[in-house]
Structures are given as C-alpha cells and as structure tokens.
Amino acid sequence: MTTSVETVRAKQSLGARIVEKLGGGLVRVFLIVVGLFWLVPTIGLLVSSLRSPEDIGASGWWEVFTQPAQLTADSYQKLLENSDITHSIVNTVLITVPATVLVVVIGSLAGYAFAWMEFPGRDWWFLGVVGLLVVPVQVALIPIAELFGKVGLFGSVLGVILFHVGFGLPFAVFLLRNFFAEIPRELLEAARLDGAGELRLFVRVVMPLGGPAIASLGIFQFLWVWNDMLVALVFTNADSQPITVALQTQVRQFGNNIDVLAPGAFISMVIPLAVFFAFQRQFVSGVMAGAVK
Questions:
Q1: What is the pTM for the complete model shown?
Q2: Are 147 and 82 in contact (CB under 8 A)?
Q3: How far apart are CA 259 and CA 81, in angstroms?
Q4: 181 and 151 in contact (C-beta within 8 Å)?
Q5: Rounded CA separation 220/207 (Å)
C-alpha cells in the first residue's frame, strides 16, 4: 500500500506536490488576501460616503483610520433630502423587480416547452431564439424608441421594463431549455403515469430540479437591469430615470457634488451585492435539490 502511494506521488507534477505540502491553510490565507484587495474599492467608497466634502478634498479616504472623527452620516442625510435621488431609487426597484420576475417566469415556461413539449416548428422556433442572442442592444434602441413613442410608452417605467424583458428572454430561454433538457426522461414519465398534467409537472418536478439555472438566471438578470445605464438613458425621462441616470445627472448639473454622489453610488452598488448574497443560499440549495444520481 505504501509503495502504491509513493508511486502516485511520484507521478504528480511539481505544482501539485507543492500545493499538497503547503496544505489548505496557506491557500485559504491567500484567497482571503485576494478577497480583501478586491473589496478595497468598495471599502474606499463606503468610507468616502461617510466623510465630509472638505475632508475628501483634503486627504485620502484611508486617513479615516487615524482620524475616525471624520466619519459622519451627513452625506446620507443630504441624500435622503434629495428628491431626485430617492425617487430614482424607487424607479430602479420598480424597473428591476418586474423585469427580473417576468424574464424568469416566461423563460422557465418557454424553456420547458422547448425541452419537453412537442409542437409544430419547435426546433425552428428555438433556432430563432438562439439567433436573437447575437442581436446587440444598440441596434434596437432607435427603432424601439420610435415604436414606444407611437404607442405612448417612451419615457415611462413600463417601456424600460418591456425592453429589458425582450432582450433578456432569448438568453433565459436558451439557458433554461438546455438545462431542462438534461432532466432524466424517466422522472417526467413517472410523474405523467401518476396523473400529473403539464402545469403540475412543471411546478412539482421541473422547477425544483431547475433551481440552479433559475437562481443563476435571476441573479444575472437582476444585476444587468439594476446596473444598466444605456437603456435607461435612452428610454427614461426625469420622472422615470433610475439611480444610474440620476447620479450621472447630478455630475452634469453640480460638477463635484461628492456629498451626494458618494453615498448614492454606494447604495447603488451595495443593493445588488446584498441581493446576490441573499440568493446565494437559495442557489446552493437548488444545486443540492437538483442533483440527480
């Protein structure tokens, strides 16, 4: 037994032997250091949002560790008093949540239909969906803006939602169809033998098994819509603009308006992070529930 172990170790590469000698402790320390470096911009933005404009202009944000008296919540108070920013945060939620939910629901239903239901032209329709993946957003901005202008949706929250849903669905259908197609046929046939219809089969069997893909799609769609600026800049007005456009407007109007920009940018960034970590547990649970052996 000892001889076989030594033979296996002898066949290992130099890098593998070094990693084995170092053990997992040093690797964890290295990953923690990398993670801390990755968080430095976020920490800097948080600290800047808690400093006065005078302190920000006089020294770097790291000075707060030697002068903690600089920390103040006045910038966040000014932010809450800025009706443009607070209204834009509400608009961002009103745009992002429906756009994410609609893409996940419609994409799941369409993905299941393309994977397991028979209907005329199914493969050709799916090829059309795949072809839409290569259409860039920039190409459709002007034509859809003209269409929304004719039907009265230009400059409204609903118009932005419909645009994001339309461009999010091709990827959603493609991703979920390929994932659902890997579900063992025996499971679906057993459910049908038990009397399950297509809707019950989708809700009780396909959705739990598709948890990993659905959770990933929801996270990606939420982050894409929340951080979007191009579509919002084209299709919104002063009453419907999200936080990304509102912050850009503050820069244009007031120049170095750091006491509003810093806390606004931090809130705009921390909410997607919170959503990601909140859905991460469900993502892992979906992976465990969807494991088929």
A1: 0.78
A2: no
A3: 12
A4: no
A5: 18
pLDDT tens, residue order, the chain (293 aa)? 445 545 545 555 565 666 565 556 677 788 788 878 888 888 888 888 888 877 777 777 788 887 777 788 888 888 888 788 888 989 999 999 999 999 999 999 999 889 888 888 888 998 888 888 888 888 888 899 899 989 988 989 999 999 999 999 999 999 888 888 888 888 888 877 877 777 888 888 888 888 778 888 888 899 899 988 889 888 988 888 898 888 887 765 555 677 777 888 888 888 888 877 777 766 555 445 444 44
Written as six digits, the tokens of 115 are 């994977």
Q: For residue 191, what are its two tokens?
A: 């459910």
User: Hey, what are 93's tokens?
Assistant: 């939620």
Closest by CA position to 219, among listed 268, 168, 180, 179: 168
